[in-house]
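Listing 4. Sequential folding, example run.
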Amino acid sequence: MNLKNKKILITGAAKRIGKSIAMVCAQKGAHILLHYYASEKEAKNTQQAILRLGSPCSLYQANLCKSEEVKDLIQQILKTEKRVDVLINNASLFYPKTLEETQKDDLDVFLNIHLKAPFLLAQTFGPLMKKRGEGHILNLIDAGISNPQPRYLAYASSKAALLAFSQGLARSLAPEVQVNCISPGQIFAPENYSKKMKDQIIQKTLREKWAGSEEISRMVLFLLESDFITGQNFFVDGA
C-alpha cells in the first residue's frame, strides 16, 4: 500500500510506540487520526510535530475501556473522515496482577482495551475496507504471550486473546484486507525499574539491549507497504 493520503487511525498514539508509528506514517504522507485518552498535552505536541512534516493530523479522545466511548469514537470518525484505510490498535494498559490478586475489574480493564475495543473498531472499519478493496489492520500484542509470567497473567491472557482474534479476522476479511500482529519485546525500560532490574532483563535477550520504538515503527512500515503478508504475528524482541 502506498501510504500517501491514506487515513491511518492509531490508538494510544500520543507518546512512546504509538507516537513513533504516527511519525513514520506521517513521513510517508499519511493523514494521521491520532487517538488518545488522558495524554492531551502529549497528543497536541505529537499533532504539531506531524503538521510540521506537512501531513494532516486529527485528534480523537476516548476511553477505550468503555464500549460506549468506543462506539462514539467510531461515529465521530465516520462523520468527519468518511473512511479509515489503516487501523493500528496500539493502545494498552500494563500492570502486574497474579492469579490470586486479579479482581473482576482488572480482567474487565485488560479485556476491554486489548480485545473489546480492537474488536469493535475492526468490526466497523474492516468490512468498509473490504468493500473498498484494500486495507490494513495491525494489532500490537506482546512478546510475553509466548511465555506468560505469573505476575502478569491477566495482562498476557488478554493479549493472547487479541492474537487469536487477529488470526480469525485475517480470514474474515481476506483477500482484500491484510491483518497482522507485532509482538514487541524489550522496547523501553519501565520507568520504575532500577538499573539492576533493567540489566537483568536485557541480559536474558540475545541482543542485550533495549530496542527503542524505532524498531516497531520500521516493522509497521514493512507490513503496511506489503501487499501480500497477512494473518501473521511478528516478534520484535531481540530474542
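-- end of first protein; second protein begins --
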Amino acid sequence: MKNQGPNHSANSAGSRPQTGAIHATFPCDTQFNSVMPPIYPSSNFSFDSMGVNKGYDYTRSGNPTRSMLESTLAHLEGGIDCICTATGMAATGAILHLLRPGDHVITGDDIYGGSYRMMHSVFSNYGIEFEFIDMTDSERVAAAIRDTTRLIYIETPSNPLLRLVDIEAVATLGHQAGAMVAVDNTFSSPVFQRPLDLGADLVIHSTTKYINGHSDVVGGAVISNSAELAEKLRYTSNACGLSQSPWDAWLVLRGVRTLAPRMQVHNSNALAIAEFLQSHPAVSRVYYPGLPDHPQHALAKRQMKGYGGVVSFDFRTPMDTERLDSFFGKLRYFALAESLGGVESLIESPFFMSHASMPEEARRGAGISEGTVRVSAGIEHSRDLIDDLSNAL
C-alpha cells in the first residue's frame, strides 16, 4: 500500500476558510466532472500488478474519500497532513498512543469528561502519568513541567466552562522542554482559531461537532505540522484500526463545506444568548469568552477570530435533577442532549451528563456543579432562542 495522504495547495484552494472548505478538493472527479466529491465505499482496491496500485489497497489503511476530507482539514488548519478517525476519542487516543511508559502529560482540570476518562482510567494503566491542572495560568504550566514531560494537551476554549489557554505561551514552554503540544480545537473550529499558527504541533477535532455540523455522524481528526508526526500518526491509525469509514468521511466532507457561514451564525446566536443570560436574575454566572467581563476576553480577542457557539451558565439557586428536568421540559427549541455543534440548539447538564464520567471530586474541583448548564446555540433565529430560554427560566 502506498497511500498518498492529503495533498493540498493553500494557493489553489484559497486562504480563506469559506473558499478552502469547498475548493481544497476541487476538482475531485476527472472522470465525470461531478461537482460533489464522490464516495468510494470499497473495502479493498485491486493491484495493477504485484506491488503496483493507484495509491490504495485497503480502506483501513487509506481511502480516496477519506483522503479528500483529510486534505480539506489539513488545508483549513494550515497543517501538512491529517488523519481522520472513527470518533473524536479515537483522535485523542491516536495521540496518546505516541507516548511510552514513564512519560508525563500536562492537561487541563476542566477538559471534556471523555478525554479525562481516557487519560485517567485507561492510559494511566500503562505507566503514563497525567497531571490535571488549571492551564489558564501559563506560570502554573511552567511549574508543572518535568524532565519526563512529553505532551502538553490543551483544550481551549475548555468544555464546559469556556476557559482559555494561551496557546502561543504554552507552546513555547512545551518546546523548550522537548514536549509535543496538542490543542483540541473542537469548540472553535479552524474558522475561529488555528493553533498550528500559534506554535502547536498537533490539532485535534471531534468532527462530530462543528466540522460536520449536522448531528448525523461521529468522527475525529488529528492535523500535524511535521512529516515525522504525520508518519507516526498514520502508522498508529492503521495499526490500531482507528480510521474513519468512507461513508462517514463523505458525510463530514459534505458538512464541512458550510462550516464558515455556520460558525458565524453559531457565534452571533451564542453571544446574544450570553448577553441575555447575563442580565437574568435566575443566573449567577455566564461563561462565554465573547463577553467583555470574561476574565480572558483580551486573550480571546488576540488568539481567536470568533468566540464559538457554546455558552454555559450557573443557576443562582441550588439545583438537582428534578429542578433541572422542570427547566429543560419547558424548552421548545433546545433539545436535551449531549454533544454540540449541530444546526439545532442543544442543552444539557455537564454534572449529570457529558462530564458524569469524571469523579465527582474532579468535577467540583474544575468548577462544574449541579447548577451548571451548557448550551449549544444552533442556527435558528436568535430571538426565538432567547424567548424560549426566557420562558423556561
